[in-house]
Structures are given as C-alpha cells and as structure tokens.
Write a structure and sequence with these properties.
With 178 residues, the protein is mainly alpha-helical. The protein has one domain. 64% of the residues lie in helices and 5% in strands. The chain contains 5 helices and 3 strands, in the order αββαααβα. A 3-stranded antiparallel β-sheet has the order 2-1-3, with helices on one face. Strand 1 and strand 2 form a beta hairpin. Helix 2 packs antiparallel against helix 3, helix 2 packs parallel to helix 5 and helix 3 packs antiparallel against helix 5. The longest helix has 33 residues. The radius of gyration is 24 Å and the shape is elongated.
C-alpha cells in the first residue's frame, strides 16, 4: 500500500487575530472615530442664533436658517471622511467572514454614527428652551447642535461600505488574474 499525501495548504483562520482582540480592535476604532467625529462636528459647526425681540419672541434671519442646514452638511462631511478608515479596519478584521463581515462593518458604522451624533450634541450647545426663557431682549441665543434629519446617521454605514467594496473588487480582479 502507498501512503496518500495531501498537498493542500492549511486553511487560513477566519479572523486575523483572536476573537477578543478583533472585538476590542473594532470597538476601539468605532469609539475613537465616533468621538472624534462628534468633537469635530462641535468645533466646526456654528449653530444659528435666534435674537430675542422686545416682545420676548425669538427671531432668526435667513442666514441663520441656512446655518441649520450647515449643521447637517458638516455632519455629512465628517461622516464621509471618518467612515472610510473605519471601513478599512472592518475589511482587515472581517474580510474572510464573507457577508456576515459586511453586516458587522455596517453595524459598526451605525454605532459610530450614533456616537458622533450624541457626543456632538452633548458638547453642545444644548438646553435651547431654557436658554431662550432666561434671555433678555436683544440677546442672541444659539440653537442646540443637532441633526435636522436624523436619517443622516446612515451616511456612516454607507461610507464604511466603500473601502469594503473597493477592496473586494481588487481582490476579485487579482484572483481572476492569478
């Protein structure tokens, strides 16, 4: 009888490191990028201000109304920039998992989006109603830092998918050539 030998290479592990380290790495990237996004959103955004009139009514200018949309635009820009490295980290961690890895990456993007949004709101300004009630005529009271359209948190997962899509295509093309 002859011995049978297999020339198969050992299977690559599904994760590049132990599961615990993958989870910590992913959560760390989500937290750092989400908090950084919230801080940048707070620093770069100038919330519009209402002017308190003699009749104690709050008045906002047309320019102020445009600044309401600027808060959303800054959130989108920050999301687009910071979600890309998060997508790259998720690709590196989860690329061998297949479609479940993509779902994990999209979820990571959603969590980072909510962290960014809520941390920015926490940094403020906030408490608009209370500040308006305490204001005197002629005072300018800035609005709370908030998203006019909360669905904008979906920009993060969408942008997390970009590096994953590009890397998947590159890997597919390389596989067909080789």
């Amino acid at each position: 009888m002859s011995d049978i030998t297999l020339d198969e290479a050992p299977a690559e592990p599904l994760l590049p490191m132990p599961v615990g380290r993958c989870v910590v790495t992913c959560l760390g990237a989500v937290a750092v990028l989400g908090l950084l996004g919230g801080l940048l959103w707070h620093v770069l955004t100038v919330p519009p201000a209402y002017t308190i009139g003699d009749d104690r009514g709050a008045i906002i200018t047309e320019r102020g109304l445009s600044q309401v949309f600027a808060m959303d635009i800054w959130y989108i820009i920050i999301s687009m920039v910071l979600a890309l490295p998060l997508g790259a980290v998720c690709w590196w961690l989860f690329r061998r998992l297949g479609w479940p890895g993509v779902l994990l990456a999209l979820f990571a993007g959603l969590v980072a989006a909510v962290i960014c949004w809520q941390f920015g709101r926490l940094l403020g300004p906030n408490g608009f109603a209370e500040r308006v009630s305490q204001a005197s005529p002629g005072d300018r009271v800035p609005m709370d830092l908030s998203l006019d359209a909360p669905l904008l948190v979906l920009v993060w997962p969408a942008m997390v998918g970009v590096p994953i899509l590009v890397a998947s295509i590159v890997e597919l093309v390389r596989g067909r050539r080789g």
